């Protein structure tokens, strides 16, 4: 049905930001924006949160963001124990491992972060994110039209529960509506990348598989007949594999039982089945005027390596403070251009790594099947295995991303180019990088100094306290010499940290004039505000 000329049946609702899509990215953006005092409305075309596990890995960087929201402890409590932060490769689920790989930053604490990532199902994560904010959420409501004007975007929403349509006027729209984004397609934004790579099916089922998993836990078991994943600490499993040609006549319980192997003698009690396409692309643009793309709408990342959802959470974190600044008047509209400038290169780097992971993992499984079919029973060292540093040791991507944009002030030392080996992460407090984690006290990290404000870290706060930072929100934290030394910061130097935790500016001495802080904040936020 065409909606271009359909009249909505109520007066338009006005909000600051309309969020389209109720997955982890949209829900995270809603929680972050509410902390900034931004009025949001989130709409999701499905009638409820997804009942499928979907994303399985919350990495350390996402957990740092959730820590900032006060959610990390709850998420960890509902997730698997760290010992599940591992993948295992087997011929069948009941065979021994012919290979295994630890998920770095998930299976054990790392010194580079105050938190560790977790293995948890998306349907276990989303309710926590939904409860983290009070902003209005409307399920069963689909965006069917939008018109962008000079001051706002007018969206037409169809309510599939109650019927009828409504209009919403929003200062900005955040499109977090998935890889098949209606908004991206309506805007005519093209994508770059392989596109649809393969069709897969997820079968959620119950079965007693503890005899083959309890003593050798993992977040994912790759086998020759698909992958098996424990869903929740209390039970439940999912099988993931290529979609059969005739899905209509497939006996899913029989398929999963056969995938377990001929000696398993287990009948799977199938609960839900979902077919999906593994996409691989990056949108050519992340901004169209007052409309911004995030998450899978901006970049569809293959599942191997667990980076897709996490990249979207980082999108929301990067964008939240910029939208808040524009809406509250302490940032200029141009700061929103730096969202694309900063996040688009990261999306391409992430996609490249995930595609490489995908091809490697599928190639290994294919070779293993060929060996077994040939009756050779090859040893693991005769198979090219995907746990080189690039597969799950990805801290260079998780923690080491460096931004270059007008929202980062160079101190004359250019941030290094993104590493060709995403495993590499070397903590640095140079502009553009995520501020490194250090323990200020046994319970408080440098990352805990962040919030809905800019943070100035210095061992010599007095000259900075004399400077006016109005109208920008700013807090000054005093660094002990041991922490200053860890970052090679001179005794009178300072770091200005953006609300998303990235270093915005660095000084090696006391402020050279009475306007240093004002000028830096003005430049980062693009306000051109007079002194």
The end-to-end distance, rounded to whole angstroms, is: 54 Å
Number of strand segments: 22
The total of helices stands at 13
From the helix content, strand content and strand pairing, which structural class follows?
Answer: alpha/beta
- State the shape: globular
Low-confidence residue ranges = 1-8, 378-382, 414-421
Q: Tell me the radius of gyration.
A: 24 Å
**Mean pLDDT reading:** 89
Major pleated sheet: 8 strands, mixed
As an assembly, this protein is single chain
Tell me the β content.
15-25%
Helix content: 25-40%
List the helices and strands and how they pair.
Layout: E1 13-20, H1 24-35, E2 40-44, E3 57-58, H2 60-68, H3 72-77, E4 86-89, E5 99-102, E6 118-119, H4 122-130, E7 136-139, E8 141-148, E9 153-159, E10 165-175, H5 182-187, E11 191-206, H6 210-213, E12 220-223, E13 226-232, E14 235-242, H7 252-260, E15 269-283, E16 287-288, E17 291-293, E18 299-300, H8 308-328, H9 337-373, H10 395-398, E19 454-458, H11 462-465, E20 474-478, H12 481-486, E21 494-497, E22 503-507, H13 516-525
Parallel strand pairs: 1-2, 1-10, 2-7, 4-12, 10-17, 19-20
Antiparallel strand pairs: 3-6, 4-5, 8-9, 9-10, 11-14, 11-15, 12-13, 13-14, 15-18, 16-17, 19-21, 21-22
Short description:
With 531 residues, this protein is an alpha/beta fold. It is 26% helix and 25% strand.
Structure description:
26% of the residues lie in helices and 25% in strands. The protein is α/β, with parallel strands linked by helices and 531 residues long. The strands form 4 sheets. Strands 1, 2, 7, 8, 9, 10, 16 and 17 form an 8-stranded mixed sheet that branches. Strands 5-4-12-13-14-11-15-18 form an 8-stranded mixed sheet, sandwiched between helices. Helix 11 links the parallel strand 19 (454-458) and strand 20. Helix 1 runs parallel beside helix 8. It is globular, with a radius of gyration of 24 Å. The termini are far apart.
